[in-house]
Design goal:
- By secondary structure, the chain is α/β, with parallel strands linked by helices.
- It has four domains: 161 residues, Methylthiotransferase, N-terminal domain (Rossmann fold), CATH 3.40.50.12160; 111 residues, Transcription Regulator spoIIAA (2-Layer Sandwich), CATH 3.30.750; 117 residues, Transcription Regulator spoIIAA (2-Layer Sandwich), CATH 3.30.750.200; 56 residues, OB fold (Dihydrolipoamide Acetyltransferase, E2P) (Beta Barrel), CATH 2.40.50.
- The protein is built from 14 helices and 21 strands.
Length: 470
């Protein structure tokens, strides 16, 4: 199939907005404004996609609810990374058959990465007949047209063809957070790690134009957002497909030049593409948060090769040393898969050595979950589940120890934090984040939410810091 990026024209987006208006007119005839429920699973990219789905729904005259019983439209935005998430979605989707019986006019939509998998789409078609609409990430931009068709003609719609990826600008957005915002800078992935389904369901890498990204960030800053995260499956590949190529470090510098008091974060980075230029740009740009999420996945080179990661542990550690030399207080996080097919416990020990060498602030840890359609799903996997679990528990215990030690080193310091919410805890009613994205629970007035504040750190555990506003 042709994999060139499809740019959705402004005229095509206007057609979708016209469908929004048509649905809004239908909804205006109802006795009261209808409500929609958007339920999101998975990564920040899914959260960003859901913000666009809500944007469309708002244009169509829907308010929002968290109660399935109240919703005339339910949209479940799914993740395909792990089996557990998939089973959770299917369980919740199955339970909706009862709400649909009680509310026959309710429309149930399944979208996201799971929906793009042919086996899942067919399972929904055959076994979940109460689901009205199934569409993948490639056709999200056509959501109003699909919903309008359902409202006008009923029936079922499946839009999951293996299409080339697209870039669609001009989709309305409704953000749930008033302090933090996600900005997608690119979509898709070209890496084809042997365990990962993402390239198959989100397509090849395609970059948004820098002027569109900068315009979106400028609008967010004007609206008072203080914490802006640039998103991509591999942000370090940004720009390679543009007519006038520019790299991610260049984009980061241009975002940093936007006037205003805000933090810039980004994820995710691939070690093979994280460059010295990127590290130097991070160190030089005062708005770029001193934090890097750099997944290494496994500590053994043989396992990394079978994973198709295209980096070695020596290369990874060299990059960490170079980054720490430029930004000594850098906060480092990573992803680790335990029990990849064929991994021995001796090879797993190499992963523990990486933890001891780097001393990550936090890890996102997973026991290998086979994803049908990926090479790893067909690999021999002789290690018993019980041994994988023992190794996983050892990994978590070591990282918990390191995290608690690193957190306790904050005690007695005063840190500039972005206060982003309220916790409901009478002793520490505010939540916030350090520049390195460490969670802070703090004592202080509710009026501080949405501002930067100096927080004196008075306590810590392996998950968070505790303090009071100065």
């Amino acid at each position: 199939m042709e994999r060139a990026t499809t740019v959705i024209s402004p005229q095509d987006i206007q057609i979708q907005l016209d469908h929004c208006q048509a649905v809004a007119q239908l909804n205006a005839r109802l006795p009261q404004p209808p409500l929609a429920f958007v339920d999101t699973y998975g990564c920040q990219q899914n959260e960003a996609d859901s913000e666009r789905i809500r944007g469309y729904l708002a244009r169509m005259g829907y308010g929002f609810t968290q109660d399935e019983e109240e919703a005339r439209v339910i949209v479940i935005n799914t993740c395909a990374i792990r089996e557990h998430a998939e089973q959770r979605v299917l369980g919740n989707l199955g339970a909706l058959v009862h709400t649909k019986r009680r509310h026959p006019d309710q429309l149930i939509c399944l979208c996201g990465c799971m929906a793009q998998e042919p086996r899942i789409a067919e399972k929904i078609r055959q076994s979940y007949r109460h689901v009205d609409l199934v569409f993948g990430p490639h056709t999200l931009w056509k959501f109003p047209e699909m919903l309008h068709t359902l409202l006008s003609h009923r029936g079922r719609i499946f839009q999951t063809a293996d299409e080339a990826g697209s870039i669609a600008e001009g989709i309305p957005v409704v953000r749930q957070d008033q302090v933090k915002a996600w900005v997608s800078i690119m979509y898709g992935c070209n890496n084809f790690c042997s365990y990962c389904i993402v390239p198959y369901v989100r397509g090849r890498e395609r970059s948004r134009k820098p002027e569109d990204i900068l315009r979106e960030v400028e609008e967010l800053v004007r609206d008072g957002y203080k914490d802006i995260t640039l998103l991509g499956q591999n942000v370090n590949s940004y720009g390679k497909d543009l007519a006038e190529p520019m790299d991610f470090a260049d984009l980061l510098e241009r975002v940093n030049a936007i006037p205003g008091d805000f933090l810039i974060r980004f994820m995710t980075s691939h070690p093979k593409d994280a460059t010295q230029k990127l590290f130097e740009t991070m160190a030089r740009c005062e708005k770029v948060a001193p934090v890097l999420h750099l997944p290494f996945q496994a500590g053994n080179d043989r396992v990394l090769k079978v994973m198709n990661r295209r980096h070695t542990i020596a290369e990874y550690l060299d990059k960490i040393r170079a980054l720490k030399a430029l930004i000594p207080d850098i906060v480092l996080t990573s992803d680790v898969i335990v029990g990849f097919p064929g991994e021995t416990t001796a090879e797993f020990e190499d992963t523990l050595k990486v933890l001891e060498a780097v001393r990550f602030d936090a890890l996102f840890t997973f026991i290998f979950s086979p994803r049908p359609g990926t090479p790893a799903a067909d690999m021999d996997d002789p290690m018993p589940r019980e041994e994988k679990l023992r190794n996983f528990n050892r990994l978590v215990a070591l990282q918990d120890q390191i995290s608690e030690e690193k957190h306790r080193a904050y005690i007695g310091k005063t840190v500039r934090c972005l206060m982003d919410g309220e916790s409901g805890d009478p002793d520490y009613p505010l939540t916030g984040r350090t520049p390195g994205n460490r969670l802070v629970r703090a004592a202080g007035p509710a009026s501080a939410v949405g501002t930067f504040a100096q927080v004196e750190i008075t306590g810590a555990n392996k998950w968070s810091l505790f303090g009071r506003l100065r």
